[in-house]
Structure formats: C-alpha cells, structure tokens
Amino acid sequence: MKFTIAPSILSADFSDLSGELKKINAIYDSWVHLDVMDGHFVPNLTFGPCVVKSIRNVSDIFFDVHLMVEYPENLIGAFYNSGANAITFHIESTHFPMRLIKMTKEFGVRVGVALNPATPVEQIFPILEFLDIVLVMSVEPGFSGQKFIPFSLEKIRRIADFRKKHGLNFLISVDGGVNEETAKNILLAGADVLVMGSYFFKNDYNRVVKFIEHLREK
Predict the structure, then answer these.
(1) Does the active-site annotation cover 16?
(2) What CATH number is associated with residue 161?
(3) Cβ of 127: how many Cβ atoms within 10 Å?
(4) Which is catalytic among the residues 35, 38, 64, 132?
(5) Which strands sit side by side in the sheet containing 4-7, from one edge to the other?
(6) Is 192 a catalytic residue?
(7) Closest CA to 42 of 63, 62, 72
(8) Which of 94, 183, 190, 197 is the most exposed place for a label (fewest CB within 10 A)?
(9) Residue 191: which domain range?
(10) DSSP string of the chain?
C-alpha cells in the first residue's frame, strides 16, 4: 500500500523535539502533523507559531499544520511565516470556507479542510475541488489517545468515491486512533495519509517502523 505517515508531535516528548523529528525524518514518505489548539474551539491548549518556527530550524520535512481554533483566518499568515507547508482549518470553524481557502493558497501553501466526527461529509462536497487535503477526524478533536470511531470508515469511503467520480486529486488524511488494529482498514477505505500520535510516540520505535514497512508491503 502507498501512503504517507504523519506523526503528530502532540504526543511527542517536548523535552527532545529535535530527537523526535529525527525519528520521523528516518521514515520514508513522512510528514510532521502539528495540532494547534486554542482552548476555545477545543478544550485543550497546545502551541503556537513560535514552536513551529523553532522546529522548522532543525528539520526540512513537510509540516502539516492542523488548526483546531476559532477564527483560523487570524493565524494563517503567522503559521505560514513559521514554516508551514500545509494549513488545514476546520469546516466547523468558519462560515466562509472559500475565503479561507483563497487566503491560504495566496501564501503558496497547500490548503486542507478538516471535519469532526459528527459533521456530515456532504458539508464539504461543494468545496472539494479547491482542496489539497481533506482531514477526517476519527476521534473528537482536542486530546490524543482516543479510540477510533468506526463510522469514520464510511465517511472516508464516501469522500474517496466523490474524488474518483469527479476526477479530483486531493489527499485524504485520517486523524485519531490510527494504530495496528485500524490502519489497514483506513487505507482500504481510501485514505492516503495516516496521522499517528500516541501509537507512534508511545510504543517501541522499531516496532512502529516494522509495522509501517509491513503495511507498505501489502
């Protein structure tokens, strides 16, 4: 199977982010997933552009910034300047998604839209042709370590079917509960990018690498 692995540093050891980035860099076809939370859109609070800029200085890997924030339009420029390669905002966070898509593309980075588990996929169908990434949240956003929500597979399939029917080429990324038990079915449903948090950073690194290699051999 062909896919991108995108470890979320939300679950990393923040006392050694440089070392954690080296682990990701060592894996073929990998991104860094950066979960930005503001304590309002979701209850948790994480980090801002300064942290992203500091780790940008020690890594040239693809940075996928996931904005779980209210008023994402206020942060797009700051995260572009911090070194983001892609910026994903939540469809639930704005009444004007096309305005945000246009704003993000004007900075020259990839643009993505995320949708929460309870959000119908039909809500993003009108804008799919303008996107580079669709991020399916397979857990409720805000905290790492949650279990994968099974009906997320059907959402992935429906988005993948829409993509095929209309000849689009955006990537489908999946975030939440991605591990040895769920990853294969997520990929078979049509996903291209696996966001891994707790599974990647809280398990033996060699075991994780072997599992990723095993998936790619299938």
Answers:
(1) no
(2) 3.20.20.70
(3) 16
(4) 35
(5) 4-7, 193-196, 171-175, 133-137, 110-115, 86-90, 62-68, 31-37
(6) no
(7) 72
(8) 94
(9) 4-217
(10) ---EEEEBGGGS-GGGHHHHHHHHHTSSSBEEEEEEEBSSSSS-B---HHHHHHHHTT--SEEEEEEESSSGGGTHHHHHHHT-SEEEEEGGG-S-HHHHHHHHHHTTSEEEEEE-TTS-GGGTGGGGGG-SEEEEESS-TT-SSPPP-TTHHHHHHHHHHHHHHHT---EEEEESS-STTTHHHHHHHT--EEEESHHHHHS-HHHHHHHHHHHHH-
Point out the catalytic residue in the list 38, 132, 175, 192.
175
- What pLDDT does residue 138 have? 96
What is the reported pTM? 0.96
pLDDT at 201: 95
Q: What is the number of domains present in the chain?
A: 1
